[in-house]
Specification:
Elements (H helix, E strand, L loop, with lengths): L6 H8 L34 H4 L3 E16 L5 H10 L7 H21 L1 E9 L3 E5 L4 E17 L4 E3 L4 E3 L3 E23 L2 E22 H4 L5 H12 L1 E15 L3 E8 L5 E3 L13 H12 L9 E3 L3 E9 L5 E8 L2 E2 L5 E2 L1 E8 L8 E9 L6 E9 L2 E8 L2 E4 L2 E4 L1 E11 L1
Antiparallel strand pairs: 1-2, 1-3, 1-23, 2-4, 3-4, 4-7, 5-6, 7-8, 8-9, 9-10, 10-13, 11-12, 13-14, 14-17, 15-16, 17-18, 18-19, 19-20, 20-23, 21-22
């Protein structure tokens, strides 16, 4: 039996490291974390480095690994695995076919409407530094990420009386995004009064996107060819890589016991193309690849064979309240609605309570509640423990799904990082 777990090796194969400071909350945006203790190179606001940076150079030795997974509210994997096996059978009687058709024509529309899977893998590279002088604070950061989104394209299950087999065009539909980003930032204080200090920052991001999508026919999934090879070959054939520039601008106000931040991201709104699917099918090198290609054409009324991702501009806002020593804080953040490259809607809002003991022998702790106000509308509860250069974050969705009869959170994430300024 060939499992639907083929999505996991695909994600691992295409996954590139991503910038995500400490994974205080889920989501694709690297600017979504509400935490005024976040490192200035990896925080939520391009103006923040001017607040915390010291004079001269500082290089950051960073190790960061984050994994996030999310699923729909129905468990259909076992049923689809069984259907894939059935598609390879022959000598199916009419009575058997009737039972199979009735069963799967009920299951597949539900899977198509409610089932999905997301995988987000990330890691940081030790290629970040900042420099502060009388002119301002300059920063350079390197960020990489990968995201995979999969759904089911459901189709009618039919009986071929001549060959005594079951047929369907039902398929998996996978969209994947790679992102490599090199960011150059500048920030400085622009005003000071008895109420506090105002800082401004701008960040220019050189971005390379690799965008790919593919239709994986359940019939091709049961072909004699290796499924992993089919998926990876289609992924490489369909991917399109393009380079562009995005611009972010930020403001940050720092007072004795509170701070406020505002960011406008992707101001210039560049566009990046996906590789085409469902074209030149007869030129595909293998039978399975041709089946996938023709199946994509079949679903052209439901999916776009040619697609462009526009990095829409959106706004994030943060607010923090803390004591005089900043050892205790409550942080808030919210962002406007936007689409991430694989087409998922996001608008995260979060509130975080954190403690940062003055003793170096006590760990820093934070607890964060986050909710996506659009799209999946999932809520997450997460915790972060920091001790010296070490940070560990764990989070889970508050909504459940049922897998093999047991309840399981619909989303989980874990982040591990080592951060040290040199």
């Amino acid at each position: 039996m060939k499992k639907l777990n083929y999505l996991l090796p695909l994600a691992s194969a295409i996954a590139l490291p991503a910038m995500a400071s400490t994974a205080d909350q889920p989501g694709y945006s690297s600017y979504g974390v509400s935490n005024h203790h976040a490192m200035s190179m990896h925080g939520v606001n391009a103006a923040v480095p001017a607040v915390y940076a010291k004079e001269g150079f500082a290089f950051f030795d960073i190790f960061n690994v984050n994994v996030q997974a999310e699923a729909g509210d129905v468990d259909f994997v076992d049923e689809i695995e069984e259907l894939i096996d059935i598609l390879d059978e022959d000598d199916i009687t009419l009575d058997e076919a009737t039972e199979i058709i009735d069963r799967f024509n009920e299951i597949l529309p539900i899977a198509g409407e409610q089932g999905y899977g997301n995988i987000h893998l990330s890691s940081d590279l030790p290629l970040s530094f900042q420099y502060k002088n009388d002119v301002g604070t300059f920063t350079l950061g390197t960020q990489m990420s990968a995201f995979l989104h999969s759904i089911v394209l459901d189709d009618e299950v039919r009986y071929n009386e001549l060959q005594q087999t079951i047929e369907t065009n039902s398929s998996g539909y996978v969209k994947a995004a790679e992102k490599l980003q090199v960011s150059l930032g500048y920030s400085r204080q622009i005003n000071e009064s008895k109420y506090g200090a105002l800082y401004a920052g701008v960040r220019a991001n050189l971005v390379q996107y690799g965008l790919s999508k593919q239709v994986i026919s359940f019939e091709a999934a049961d072909s004699d060819e290796d499924l992993g090879d089919i998926i990876l070959d289609d992924y490489e054939d369909n991917i399109k890589r393009e380079v562009g520039v995005t611009i972010d601008a930020s403001a940050f106000f720092m007072s004795q016991n509170y701070s406020l931040g505002l960011n406008i991201l992707n101001i210039n709104q560049p566009s990046f193309k996906f590789g085409d699917i469902g074209k030149n099918c007869e030129e595909k090198p293998t039978e399975a690849a041709q089946i996938n290609c023709y199946t994509a054409q079949y679903f052209s009324d439901r999916i776009a064979l040619s697609e462009t991702y526009k990095a829409d501009a959106y706004v994030t806002a943060q607010a923090s309240i803390f004591n005089d020593s900043q050892s205790m804080a409550i942080d808030f953040s919210i962002e406007t609605e936007h689409n991430i490259p694989v087409g998922i809607e996001e608008q995260w809002a979060s509130v975080s309570v954190s403690g940062r003991p003055e003793s170096k022998y006590m760990p820093n702790l934070s607890l964060t509640y986050s909710k996506n106000l659009v799209g999946t509308e999932l809520s997450y509860l997460s915790g972060n423990l920091g001790w010296g250069i070490f940070n560990l974050s764990l989070g889970a969705a508050l909504e459940d799904t049922e897998i093999d009869g047991d309840k399981s959170p619909r989303g989980v994430f874990i982040g591990l990082s080592l951060n040290k300024a040199i």
